[in-house]
């Protein structure tokens, strides 16, 4: 692999930070704190830094949660469980936070339903729906409150962009991009 | 009951629950991996605390710079316990501290305040 070409690709895509591999809580907070400190030095507004921090954290927790479920069911643990990117779009003049992970095809329907619903809501409706779900706990599961995508949408200035690519009969590659 | 004190980490807040003073303190960031597991001893302690007779007021100081969505659910459930205690005649007051530059922290406080209309919930600028 040509690392110079890789670096050029990273720079051209406006990637400020990227990570691929197993995610742990110390890795998550180490990267999140570093991004926070670095962005403060560039005098980026606290609201934008907070939004990047929040979306990054939700996405990394999703990667951790999905990969743990998959490993515990005996799937290939050497497959990179997740990718995370924080970048700056030169054309839009906006920051973005993206992530990707392997998922089971059987979860596709539920996931798409959730994301489609979130994208129909405006800021006020998101705030209301978030509070509604927080109160009734309908989306609550073992590892979280099931509010992650809503949290991302609240911090986003555009709709959530997502895509699912089928790998085989059981697995898919899920990616999501949040523009701050 | 004994004091429950948990030191802060990068992703969990300092927690200090003092039964003699009737003061609960939360300070820092909250985004643990398994939020419900992390807070379960705290919730158990608080539920026990409200089982004993208590006439002095309980003051809750929340100074949380950042919290993730599952912590948000946890805090909701925590305020729900406080609201139940209030209904049972306990005197409870929550102080929610926010940074004026941090709009989402104020917004979060406003939403909790609205969710628990009868609970004394003060939004305090740092």
Descriptive account of the structure:
Chain A is α+β, with helices and mostly antiparallel strands and 180 residues long. Chain A has helices at residues 3-12, 25-41, 46-72, 108-119, 123-136, 148-155; strands at 15-20, 82-89, 94-104, 161-166, 171-179. Chain A has one domain (3-179). In chain A, strands 1-2-3-5-4 form a five-stranded antiparallel beta sheet. In chain A, helix 3 packs antiparallel against helix 6 (148-155). The longest helix of chain A is centred in the first third of the chain and has 27 residues, at 46-72. Chain A starts with a helix and ends with a strand. The mean pLDDT of chain A is 91. Chain B has one domain (4-49, 57-125): Transcription Regulator spoIIAA (2-Layer Sandwich), CATH 3.30.750. Chain B has helices spanning 35-49, 69-87, 103-115, and strands spanning 4-6, 14-18, 23-30, 58-67, 92-98, 120-125. In chain B, helix 1 packs parallel to helix 2 (69-87). Chain B is globular and about 40 Å long. Classes of the chains: A alpha+beta (180), B alpha/beta (126). The A-B interface holds A 25, 28-30, 33, 46-47, 50-51, 53-54, 57-58, 61, 64, 127, 131, 134-135, 137, 140, 143-145, 147-148, 150-151 and B 10-11, 31-35, 66, 68-70, 72-74, 76, 99, 101-104, 107, 111, 115.
| Structure summary, number of beta strands of chain B | 6
Round the mean pLDDT of chain A to the nearest integer and report it. 91
Report the structural category of chain B. Answer: alpha/beta
Instruction: Work out the number of β strands of chain A.
Output: 5
What gross morphology of chain B would you assign? globular
Strand order, largest beta sheet of chain A: 1-2-3-5-4
| Percentage of residues assigned to helices of chain A | 40-55%
Structurally, how many domains make up the residues of chain A?
1
Please give the order of strands in the largest beta sheet of chain B.
Answer: 1-2-3-4-5-6
First and last CA, distance of chain B: 31 Å
How many H/I helical runs of chain B? 3
Give the overall shape of chain A, derived from the CA principal axes. Answer: globular
Q: How would you sum up the major sheet of chain A?
A: 5 strands, antiparallel
Strand content of chain B: 25-35%
Unreliable sequence segments of chain A: none
Tell me the strand percentage band of chain A.
Answer: 15-25%
What kind of oligomer do you see?
Answer: heterodimer
Reported CATH architecture of chain B: 2-Layer Sandwich
């Amino acid at each position: 692999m040509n690392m110079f070409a890789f670096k050029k690709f990273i720079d051209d895509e406006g990637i400020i930070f990227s990570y691929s591999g197993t995610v742990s809580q110390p890795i998550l907070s180490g990267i999140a704190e570093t991004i926070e400190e670095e962005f403060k030095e560039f005098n980026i507004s606290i609201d934008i830094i907070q939004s990047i921090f929040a979306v990054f954290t939700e996405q990394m927790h999703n990667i951790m949660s999905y990969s743990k479920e998959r490993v515990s069911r005996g799937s290939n643990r050497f497959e990179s469980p997740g990718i995370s990117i924080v970048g700056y779009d030169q054309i839009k003049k906006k920051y973005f936070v993206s992530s990707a992970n392997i998922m089971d095809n059987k979860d596709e329907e539920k996931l798409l339903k959730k994301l489609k619903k979130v994208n129909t809501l405006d800021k006020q409706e998101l705030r209301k729906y978030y509070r509604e779900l927080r109160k009734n706990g309908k989306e609550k599961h073992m590892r979280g409150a099931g509010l992650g995508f809503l949290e991302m949408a609240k911090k986003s200035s555009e709709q959530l962009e997502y895509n699912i690519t089928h790998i085989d009969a059981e697995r898919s590659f899920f990616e999501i991009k949040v523009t701050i | 009951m004994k004091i429950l004190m948990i030191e802060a980490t990068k992703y969990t807040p300092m927690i200090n629950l003092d039964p003699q003073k009737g003061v609960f303190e939360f300070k820092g960031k909250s985004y643990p991996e398994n939020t419900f597991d992390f807070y379960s001893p705290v919730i158990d302690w608080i539920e026990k605390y409200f089982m004993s007779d208590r006439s002095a007021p309980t003051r809750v100081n929340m100074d949380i710079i950042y919290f993730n969505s599952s912590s948000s659910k946890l805090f909701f459930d925590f305020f729900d316990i406080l609201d139940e205690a209030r209904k049972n005649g306990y005197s409870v007051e929550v102080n929610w501290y926010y940074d004026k530059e941090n709009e989402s922290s104020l917004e979060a406080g406003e939403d909790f305040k609205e969710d628990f209309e009868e609970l004394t919930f003060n939004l305090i600028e740092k």
